[in-house]
Structures are given as structure tokens and as C-alpha cells.
Design a protein that fits this description.
Blueprint lengths: L1 H24 L12 H11 L24 E3 L13 E9 L2 E8 L1 H5 L4 E6 L7 E4 L13 E10 L6 E9 L4 E12 L2 E14 L4 E9 L6 E8 L3 E8 L10 E2 L9 E8 L5 E7 L7 E8 L10 E6 L20 E4 L10 E7 L4 H4 L8 E3 L11 E2 L5 E6 L1 E2 L2 E2 L1 E8 L4 E7 L7 E6 L8 E7 L9 E6 L4 E9 L5 E10 L11 E7 L9 E2 L9 E8 L5 E7 L10 E6 L11 E2 L23 E4 L3 E8 L6 E8 L2 E5 L4 E4 L2 E11 L6 E9 L9 E5 L4 E10 L6 E10 L5 E12 L13 E2 L11 E7 L3 E8 L5 E10 L2 E7 L12 E9 L2 E9 L2
Parallel strand pairs: 20-22, 21-25, 42-48
Antiparallel strand pairs: 1-40, 2-3, 3-4, 4-5, 6-7, 7-8, 8-9, 10-11, 11-12, 12-13, 14-15, 15-16, 16-17, 18-19, 19-32, 22-31, 23-24, 25-30, 26-29, 26-31, 27-28, 27-30, 32-33, 34-35, 35-36, 36-37, 38-39, 39-40, 41-43, 43-46, 44-45, 44-47, 47-48, 49-50, 50-53, 51-52, 51-54, 54-55
Length: 841
Amino acid sequence: IVPSKKALLWAGPLRHLNKARAAAKLAKSKHAKPGVTVKKAFQEADAASNEPRTWTGLTNPMSASATTATPANTRANNPAIDVGPSSGQSESSIAALGDQVVVAWNDGDGFVTNGDTQGFAWSANGGATFTDGGDVVHASLATYPGFSWTSDPVLTVNEKTGEFWYCGLFDYNNGANNGIGVARGRFTAGVFAFDSVFVVRTAVSASEFLDKQWVAVDSLSGNLYVTNTTFNTIDLIDYYRSTNGGRTWTGAAKLSSALDDGFVQGSRVAIGPAGEVHVTWFAVDQVTDPDNFRYRKSTNFGVSFDSEVNAVKTIANNFAGGPAFNRERASTFPSIAVDRTTSSTRGRVYLGWHESYNFWDDFFPAPTAGAARSEVESNNSTITATPFTLGNVLRGTLAKTLNTLDTDYWSVSLTAGQNMYVYLDSLSAGRAWTLRLFAPTPDQTQRLVYTGRPDSTSGATTARFVFTAPTNGTYYMRLAQVSSRSVFYRVRTMVASSAGDRSRDQRDAFTTYSDNGSAWTTPVRVNDDPIGFDNFLPEVIVGGDGIPYMHWYDHRDDLYGSRAWIYTSRAGAFGGAWQAGTKLGTAQSNFSTSSSNIAPNHGDYNHFAASTSRVHASWSDGRGANVDTWSAAMTTTCGITSGPNDTTMVANSNADFGWTLRNDNELFSGLYSVSYTDTRGWLTGAPTPITLAAEQSFFQTRNIAVPDTAVSGVNTVCLTLTNSTGAVVKQDCFAITVQGGALAVGDQLTGFALAPSVPNPAFKQARLAFSLPVSGRVSLAIFDLSGARVRQLVDGELAAGQHSVVWDGTDARGQRVKSGAYFYRLESNGQTRTQRMVFMK
């Protein structure tokens, strides 16, 4: 089992290393192709295996999604500036800070221009529109001649400084060297630009290949962290840290264990609310069928890490990507997100991924029995395909013919939910071939599975794939020759079983979480589609509401599952049951017909980012003639859009008061809790639960009775709205001034007094009450913990008696203050009183 798993991890890096070694020998040759780096050559070779495709037809929906107001989708790249007619933009990353959004992607236009194969765009209006920024700024050409950004874009943002950080792979010296770099950028007067580039690490391409880097920035310390996979004689997960804004970096520190040497890939790094550094990665298990997601944590700002933990066991389907994926292998990398909000789940770490049912236990040892079935010529089309049934062993020859690449078609009838396992072996080294599975309609060219060996340097002489039929039909399998050399093949087929497995078919999306990094919850399936539809490249993020969200490629709305929509879901209370999946995309992607000169056309990942009030998704999209990068934003806030004004009441009276509550999220309902407090203790009772549908407003009322013993003075009443994580999201207060009534002990201030603020902590506003024994000049001011005056609330003559003022949480310039502790001081006639309060944004 292990060699075939490892071969998938090494397939890409081996091709890089082999090409780099060959390039070194040809460096002085006039036949060397200038400007084409190792990474570009690799991606071009994969993309070249895409045949020309044409298709017209109607979507055949399998199931309806929720009738919600899908957020607007916006294309980030500008296809009008592409030089190549098939230039694709895929494998995107996104970062957001308020209305400032930056997106980056792999850009196939660089294959045409011999320039960067990276691009980016920015938005200053929350992602409503984007400006294509072209190339990311380069490092010094004097130090790094021929510098070119090549692959794997990642973005992050420092919320405190407003600095956006891009991290990518690069080549220089005509591909003789490769490296990892970071670029810093910022918005100035509503326009974004990168201003600096720093190099994290470099390597000699003929002996070492740096791959799949990830970056995170800690807004608390300003530290930058990068992880990556280093391929040389083995593969391992390396880690780097910068404490001076990316200018210098520590040397590579190995995070993966010696036990996993040669068997790791796809690390990601994320930051916790107290500066914790969380890292996860994929590791092939060398003993058991399920593979692993490893995890390590640092609690001292990345100086050292706790021991490795195995967070999840997973069945990785790396033999093929999602439907119409244009590379012969796929990746199973974990997505990671941390709750950095003030909710009760603050600090919780989430992982997200896709996995298959356990097909390994069905096929090892590989079956040798089974009725033989030989190809019958001519079978180079679906019309003349040779039929077979699962359990047959198929044999055939892809003959060498002049100027023609031979193809063999096979057909198999499958029933909905039936698992098909295919194992192609006994191939000679040096042969190149592809193996594909096609949907029955509309024209037998809608691609469901792609695997194989696209060139002679990849080293693989076998291929396998798993597929679960979404509906009854006759499916078509095709073997195609790539190298124009005769290929003899044997294909073993069988019915596989998913009984008792966590995943139901070729891929489902899952998530787990941990509050301490050592104990992880039982994985939960997020997608709710019927069995047989692929769910590819899920990404998880925690919104500003403290609730996790996920998005992924979902194929449920296509009869045979060949075309995709971007779907999304949101977890319930405290990371519980996920809500029904719904479309985040506004159009269907048909990657079988949307051309791309870059592989993979979907990318190895999409991305999710969170700002205070939104989550921002980015993904590769096949709705157009070419694959582009698209984005959408979903609102995560809820609000109190109206509330009572200050009023006057008399003792022994009552009145109804109302607040308008609103769930701003465009797609998902929310569970909230409403509670009431007041300074005189009139309001009692448990919090009231309330469910608000997506974009629903609700008028909440409460009757308030003034006791007959109430004395003159002010009672401040507050409604507090709490979300499902226990986080206070909104608060609205108003004052009831009581007239008349008998004296109640402790019901009013007397003499020179300053009352505690109401409420405390305060969220939206705070009412400060005080009393004066005699009239005179009065000062009431807010101070921060350093003693600096924040806001003067009262400065003038007042009469004797009770008074109150409201502080709205702004400073002398009208700017909202930071969350934290403050003092307020009353001064009059030579006397002072001071109280402490906490104000939350």
C-alpha cells in the first residue's frame, strides 16, 4: 500500500527534479527554451493533456438548494488583459480587513508571456468589484537574476497594521534555483500596492525542491510564520519565523517527525488569539490504510513547539481530482482555522478536509481472479466501446501508429450508489498514457475521473481510481496513448464496499475541532448531498461571529455529477450539527468545457478568509470560456436595528417596549438569545431563545412595570443579543426616568456620589449616574489605564440632585475606542469620585 501512496506525493517533485537536472545540462544549449522555469514546464505538461472540448446543453439539476439570497459573485481577475486565449487563473488565496480585500492566484498567462505564473487583484469595497493588479513585485534581479513567481499563492493580513502579506514559490537563474518569498503590501488612499519583497529560503533545483508553502502573521507580536514541504532525498515539513517584518528569517526547522520522513506534504499554519502558532499537515501512514493529519502547537510565539499530535485518521483519495480535474493526481491537504473572537469558543482550532470511503481494504491483496475481457477493435469511440462488468480483468493494446494516438473505450453499466474500483497495472516504464471516465450524457465527453501517466518522467507504472455512481447509467472508460509508443495494459475492476466507513463515496467534506490541541472531536460530515456526488477542496474558516463556515465544490445539481457549484455551510451552536448546504456560487462550473492552460485547473486548494463582519471565499471557477478566479462575501453579523427612546414613567405603571432584531447573514439562519437587565432589578427571568432566518428581521417586545415604591430617578434598561457561541453581539439601552413614588432604600444616589456604570461591561453605550449635594461646576471625564483623558463628558454648572449621562464609546475625535478597561472621574467643589468600567466594541 505505502509505495503507491508515496508515489503520489513524489510524482510532482520528481518531475521537477528531473526537469531541473536536465535543464542544468542544457543550460548552455541553444535549444533551451528561454524564460520557461521548472515549475512552468511542469504545469504546462499537465495542462497539455487537456483535449479540445466543445459542449452545449442544459443543466440537469439533481436536487434543489435553499431559496436564499445568494451573495453576489465577482470575478477577481480581468480576462481582457490575458494574452493567451486559454490562460487560466486557479488555486486562489484571499485575505480581508474590513472593506479591503486582496486575492492571488496561479496565472496561466505567464506560460504565454514567459513571465510570472502568479497574479493578484484588490478591492476597496468589500469585494464588490476588483482591480487586477498584474504581477506581484519582484525581488532584486541583481541578487536573484531572472526572478519569477511560479506557484502556490497564499495571502494573510495583519489586522493591527493593515499590512497584507503574499507568500509564493519562485525560480531564478533560469530555473536553476527555486525558493520561497514574501511580499508586503498595503492600501493607501483606497489603492493597493506591494512595496517590498523578502526571501525566506532558496534551494538548488537539481537537488532540492521547495513546495506547498503557507504563511500566517500574528497581529499581536507582528511575527511572520512560514511552513513548507522540502523535497530532496526525502520530504519533510520545514518551518521559518521572522520577528522583524520579513526582513530576516530563521533557518529551516523541521516540524515533521523522523517516522514520517519521505511521507509528508501540504502543511498549513494559523495563529491563535494569544499568538499561539498552529501547524497541520498530511502524512502517509506506512502501516495502516488510513493516513494522518499531524498537528503541532507553539505557545511561545513560535520559539518552540509542543510534541506532535495525530489529529485525524483519513482515507485520502489522491489518485484523481474532482470531476473534470485536469491533472492525473490530486491532493488531500487539511484546511485550518482558529477562533480569534471573544466568543466562548475563543482559541478553538478547526480542521477541514475531504476523504473517501476505505477502498484499500477492498483491493489488497489485488484480485487476480475475474473473467478476462479483451478489447475489441475498433473501439476508439463511445459508439464502439467494448462493454464489461465490474469484476472483469480488462486487457488491451494502445498501438503505435503514424501521426495518430490510439485510444480504447470501454463501457460499464452502473447503478446509483455502486462503488467502482479500477486498478491499471503491468505498464512499462517510459510509456505515457491517460485513463479517464466519462458521464453518459449529454455527449460522453463530460469528464468524471482523470488519472494516468502524462509523461515518461513521473515514474508511475500503475494507476487506480475509485468512483461512486450518482445515478443509473452506462459510463465510459477510456485509455489514451500519449507517448506514441505501443502500450500493453491490464485493468482490474471490482465492486467496492463503503459499508461502515465514515465517507459514503469518492469524497465527502469533514471537519473536527480541538480546544487544547491534544484531544480532537469525532469528525463530522459537512455536506448533505446524495451518495455518489463528489465534494472536492473544502475550506474552513471561523467568522467574526465565532462560528465556523466551510465551502467546497459540490456536484449534486448535475445528473451525473460532472459539473460543479460552490456550496457552503455553517455550523450550529458550539461547532455542532452543520446547516444544510446551500449555493454560494451564482453559476455552475463546467470544467470539462472551460479551457485552461494551467494544471490543476481547480487548483490544489481554494481559500476562505474572515473579517469582522464577513467571510470571504475565493475559488477557481469554470462558468466561462476559461477558468477564472471568483470571489463572494457572506455577512456574519446580526443587529438591533431599532430600540426604545429614553422615556418618562410614573410609579405603579407599565408599558410595552420593542426592539427590531435582524440576522444579516444572506444564507443561514441563526440561533440567538435575548436577555434583559436594568439598574433597579425590575426585570427578571431566563434569557429568551430566538431563531432568525437568513436576512430576517423580528420585532421583540417586553412589558416593563414600574413598582409603586419606585422613587424619582433613572433606571437604565438594556437588551443584550447573544449568538449561539455565547458571544454578546449587540446591546441596546435606554433610560426610564421615574417621577414620584415612595422612597425605596438604595433606590437613588444621595450626597456626592458616582454610581457604577450600567451596564458593565458595556457593549454599545454606558450610562453614568451621579448625584450632587449642592449646585456647582462639575467635571466628568473618561480616562484610559495610562491616565490619558479619552473623553470629557461634563464640564459646566449643574444643579443639586441626580444626573446621568451616556457615553457612546467614542473618544474626543469621535473615533470608537479600543475594547478594554477605563476609569471615569467626577469632580465638583473640591471633591472627587472614581469608578472603573470595561467597554467592549
